[in-house]
Amino acid sequence: MAKETKIKTTELKVISLEDVEKQVSGATKFEQTIEYLKEEVLKSKDFVIKDFNDPVQIEQCKRFRIDLRKVEIDIEKRGKSYRDIFTKVNKQILDKEKELTKITSPEIERLEKEEEAATIALQRQERQERLPARKERLDVLNDGVEVSDDILLDMDGTQFEAYINQRTQAKLENDRLVAEQKQKQAENELAEQKRLIEQEAEAKRQEEQAKIDKANAEILAERKKLDDKRVEFERQKQAALKDKPTPPVVEKPEEPQINVSENSIVNEAGPSDRRKMLDFAMMIESIVLPDVYSEKEIKVARIVTGLLIKVSNYIKDNLK
Questions:
Q1: CA distance linking residue 267 with residue 253, whole number of Å
Q2: Are the C-beta atoms of residues 300 and 219 closer than 8 Å to each other?
Q3: Residue 312 buriedness (CB in 10 A; 0-12 / 13-18 / 19+)
Q4: Secondary structure letter of residue 53 according to DSSP
């Protein structure tokens, strides 16, 4: 048992990052040391082409450059070989990392969910205490929207404020639309009432105008009859005066005071008195009443016209 424990201890021994860095630094040595490279540079450091037309000097300069570049290429090749090795090692390390974390990640996720569930439970417990106040604020809106307690408990403070603000704005907009609709309906009803009143007034006005037109037509017809009678009377009068000789002028004897009845006075009237009365009857017939338009005045005018006609006819009938 002790031996097994020792083996496990050996397998689980981890090299520190500092040791790894030292081992990597030791394993990535370059053949060219810093001292060697400085010596190689010193070989050409004082060289200068003094005559640009001298091919020997130019060739010497080229040789110095090529020799240094060969050394540099060797360094780059060695560096790339090291990088290739570490790229491969890096991939292996990454794969190993994924292999190891794959074992622990599911449990970590499960534990995170447990913590989250506990946090949510505590939050819901706290929100449960504020739930009546939240529901009271929502009830004030009176917008007819139903929401369950679970949904309200799932909301944190910020989420609930955003939710109630959204519903408040929706309620205000709905109230505005309803008010506009009611106002429009009231305006339409008012316009319809006005139209009906105007229609009724116009019908009544036309009815009154029809009565006035009828009364005026009747008055005009009565006037025409009177005018025709007056013209006929004047014609007969002129004919009678033309055919009848002028009576001599005699002194009128004093008339005795005799009490007689009304009929006897009319019947015994002389030609001159009869003519006066007939002329008076024509004057009555020629009376023109003023134009009136109200129903009451039209009725009075018609009665007066009838009475005048009756008076005229009475005079003429009793003087035949």
A1: 19
A2: no
A3: buried
A4: T
Q: So what's the pLDDT on residue 285? A: 79
Average pLDDT by consecutive 10-residue portion of the chain (320 residues)? 40 63 68 85 90 92 93 90 89 91 93 92 88 91 90 90 94 92 93 92 89 83 81 76 54 41 45 80 80 82 86 84
Report which of 32, 77, 52, 58 is spatially closest to residue 66, judged by C-alpha positions. 58
pTM score, two decimals? 0.37
Rounded Cα distance between 142 and 175, Å, is 11
Q: Among the residues of the chain, which ranges form H helices?
A: 2-11, 17-27, 34-45, 55-141, 149-153, 157-243, 262-267, 271-285, 295-318
What is the reported pLDDT for 319? 80
Contact indicator for 167, 142 with CB cutoff of 8 Å: no
pLDDT at 2: 40
Q: Which residue has the tokens 């640009």?
A: 52
Alpha-carbon distance values, 124 to 116, 130, 137, 146, 294 (Å): 12, 10, 18, 20, 86
- Residue type, position 97, single letter: E
- Terminal C-alpha separation, the chain: 173
Read off the amino acid at residue 181. Q
pLDDT of residue 19: 66
To 10 degrees, what angle do helices 295-318 and 271-285 make?
160
The candidate with the shortest Cα–Cα distance to 160, out of 136, 142, 183, is: 136
Q: What is the DSSP letter of 154?
A: T
Using alpha carbons, list the distances in angstroms from residue 207 to 212, 214, 276, 295, 296: 9, 11, 45, 11, 15
Single-letter amino acid code for the residue at 269: A
pLDDT value of position 170: 93
